[in-house]
Amino acid sequence: MNKKKAFSAVMSLALTGGLILGGCSSSSSDESSEASGDKTVVKMMHLWPEGSSNAQYTIVDDIITAYEKENPDVDIQTEILGNEQYKEKIKVLSASNELPDVGITWAAGYMKPFVEGDMFASLDDITQKDKFVAGTLDAFSFEEKTYALPLELNITPVYYNKEIFKKYNLEAPKTYDEFLKVVKTLTDNKVTPITLGNKDRWTGSMWYMYLADRIGGPEVLNNAINRTGSFEDPALVKAAEEVKNLVDMGAFVKGFNGLSNDEAKGYFMNEQAAMYMMATWELPNYTTTPDVAQEFKDKVGYFKFPAYEGGKGNVDSYVGGPGVGLFVSEQSKVKEEAKEFVSYLVEEWGKRSVVDAGVIPATFVDTNNSELHPMYIDILKDLENATNLTLYADVQMSAKVADVHLNQIQSLFGGESTPKQFTKAQEDALAAEK
Known about the structure:
Oligomer: single chain
Number of helices: 17
Structural class: alpha+beta
Largest sheet: 4 strands, mixed
Strand order of the largest sheet: 1-4-3-2
């Protein structure tokens, strides 16, 4: 599973018209969301079919069953489609102003047209902000109003092979200088320090984003993108210089610009590279997935991206983003009942998603749960102290500017753009959209 599939592809995807594609449904599509006998019908569409997404399907199905038992006057009727089918049907339904009472949305650019078209209801009245990890609600908010509640969260730690580190008397670095010493020690011993599949480009973007955050603080990159700042800010140039330095040191696997993320991951899984930075959707591979040998799982640890000496950022600021969230249709005839169900679903999802599906929720999780793998417990405790979550840069940008950013990332890592050329190209692309 990669980032484009998990989250950001939907932000730049141009949804095209076409036939409404079918899916599983517990009710006919022309049934209205009103009273059904003595019950109030709330229609929900989601994208976790029983076959391909069994864990998520089971969680939602169980939650619906429990909710209906606690609220016998409510009937939750679901329509379930695969990911691409879902996106296509939502487009068609929105064009005819017939969205389901409750549905799934992605954040930022994807949901913006729905919000601007007054299709999503504000959920401020049911949003308990103190229950959500810092920054997760921001991606689903416009003009300080929340229009969807996030279910999932991905942050990006650096995974490392503890056995390789031990062999060379290395410890997980806490500062960037310590990190550079780790890289040098490994290269001196002809060990590949970091695997990276930068053919996909967004992978390199995460390295750049962390350096920008640690050097300039959590706002410098966001400000450049939202145009309250510049991409030629000295901190953003410095971050690009640090990327060039890592490349020049031989920090990354040979041929990284020609490797996909899946190909690059193999170097870490086969113990041919000491470190691999990727989002927490990788956690099952190192914790619970039965297909991965326990001997390897026991060797994997993680650390936060290190602090940069003299920088404005801190180690509790993360690059990442929420996955999908739940919306309520502004045109729903059962809006209040729909909101009550969404509030319930989000809370119950948070209690079950880690153990049952290996998915980190956007809400805080009780880490006293004995069923949780220790690595999940550590990640979740880290999230309790999160100070910031910076949404993936290409997700924040328009599709056109995102393409410039990703191409420049590849050029910077490949040595075809200097740090100043790298930042100028992106500043020019952003400025052209003003």
